[in-house]
Structure formats: structure tokens, C-alpha cells
Amino acid sequence: PRKRLTVPAIRARKGGEPLVMLTAYTVRTAQLLDPHCDMLLVGDSLGQVIYGLPSTVPVTLEMMAAHAAAVVRGSYQSLVVVDMPFGSYEASPEQAFLSAARLMKDSGAAAVKLEGGAAMAPTVRFLTERGIPVMGHVGLTPQAVNLLGGYGARGRSAEEAAKIVGDAQAVAAAGAFSVVIEGVVEPIAIEITRTIACPTIGIGASAECDGQVLVAEDMLGLFERTARFVKRYDDMAGRIGAAAEAYAAEVRTRAFPGAEQVYAPKA
Ligand code: KIV
Ligand code: NA
Fold first, then answer.
1. How far is the CA of 83 from the centre of ligand 2 (A)?
2. Where does Mg(2+) bind (predicted)?
């Protein structure tokens, strides 16, 4: 297997071959996605996708650390980035450092991601200067759902567009090695991509971003509700339902287990 991609290698991809990123929360998913990706994101979207929570707000540091450790164990080449959950970093740069260090020590992941713009820039700088690579996340920031009132696209007004561009520029200037741009009208993503020095990773943003990310369960057709920006590459929910239906029918007719699945006594 190839050597794991490093933060400087990701940074060096600015304006080059697009960066490929998907979320992973479990070891098996990480094993399957890793050969095709540059980065794996242990997203706090796991709150809804695997815990059935109503938003990412209730997700804890313990949940993130456990899933991040599994994803590191299941991957060899992708840079593993772990989301800092709501409440673990906003109070101060010091709080963010302790939480990020804990995530990295518990999991072996090499970088963290945190949501927010200009207000988080001092925190991005504080972590970066102390050896923790930070990925930014601007635009639609799901941890702020209670403030935003929903998950609609951001930046439809000129003022909001300017704020989002300024947010991305602030976290990039503070040392972020990459910035996720989520759910914004396309010209914002293009302007950010052209004006910041590190790679942008789009989700509901633009093909002009330096890379793209999707929630794996969304693109696999496994999660029930998906945003407009998701493209489905499979219908795994349909295939899992069909497999469960076939199994149930065979159990009920005693067709399963068959001769190959039972142990014969020694002759
Ligand atoms: O939690 C997540 O999956 C994310 C991506 C959608 C960027 O933050
Ligand atoms: Na997230």
C-alpha cells in the first residue's frame, strides 16, 4: 500500500488534480473507500447517519474518537480528518486544543475539521501553531442549524455572500490547510477557490473547487433523506432490502440453511 497522504501533500494539490474525499465512520467502509480517496472524513454527520440523532448538535467527543479510531485502522493511504463536534472547540482556543489533541491521541488521525469563519480564525491559528492541522468549513455549517433555521443554501444575498467569502479567507489566512465549502450559491465557491491559497473542498458548491466531498451513505443510496447536492451512485438501500427479503423468505420456507451451511458429524 501507498504511504498515507500528508497535510503538505494535500496543500500542494491546490489548483491541480481534484482532491477526492468521502466520509467514513466504520472500519469496513474505510477499507472499501480508502483506495479511491485522498482524504477520509470522520464527519459528525454520523450523528444522523448512524445514530439517528436529529442534528449534529448532540454528537460527543467520545463518539468522534471511537469512530475515528476505526477509520484509521481501516485505511492506509487517505489522510484521515476528524470533525470536532459541537461544544468541543468554540469556547476558546485552549478548549479546542485539548479537544483536538484528545481526538488525535485516541484515534491516530492526523487532522481535525471545525466549522466557522472569522470568529474561529484565532482558534485555527492557535491549533496550527501547536502542530494540529485544521480544515475549515464555511457556508452551510450544520452545527449552527439552530441559528440558521435549516439546511438551505447560503449566500443568496450580497451581504451574506461577502460574509462567507470573508470567513473562508479568514480561516485560510489563519493557517487552515484546506477549507470545506458547503451549500452555497456557486459564484461564492468559485470566488473563494480563486482567492485562498489552500485547496477548497466543495459539497453543494462548485466543480471548480479543488476537491469534492460527499457523505458516503448519501452517494451510496443508503440514507433516506438527502440534499439536492447529493448525487446517488448506487441504490444500496434497495439492494439491502432485497437481500433481507430473500433471506426472510428462505428462513420461512426452511430453504436456509442448506446443506452447505450445516456441519455434518465426523464419519
Ligand atoms: O459531517 C460531515 O459529513 C461533513 C461533510 C458533509 C463536509 O462535515
Ligand atoms: Na460535519
1. 6
2. 44, 83, 115
Distance, CA 103 to ligand 1 centroid (Å)? 17
In terms of Cβ atoms closer than 10 Å to its own Cβ (0-12, 13-18, 19+), residue 236 is middle
Domains of the chain, each with CATH number or no CATH: 7-235 (3.20.20.60)
Residues 14-72: tens digit of each pLDDT:
999 999 999 999 999 999 999 999 999 999 999 999 999 999 999 999 999 999 999 99
**C-alpha cell, 40:** 477520509
What is the pTM assigned to this prediction? 0.97
Peptide bond into 257 cis (omega under 30): yes
Q: What is the ipTM of this complex?
A: 0.99
- Surrounding residues of ion ligand 2, Cβ less than 5 A: 43-44, 83
Nearest protein CA to atom 5 of ligand 1, as residue:
43
Is 182 among the residues known to form the active site?
Answer: yes
Q: Which of 26, 20, 27, 23 is nearest to 40 (CA)?
A: 23
Between the CA of 44 and the centroid of ligand 1 the distance, in Å, is 6
Using CA atoms, how far residue 25 sits from 1, 72, 166, in Å, is 21, 10, 31
Q: 107 a known binding residue? A: no
CA-nearest residue for atom 4, ligand 1, is 43
159 is in an annotated binding site: no
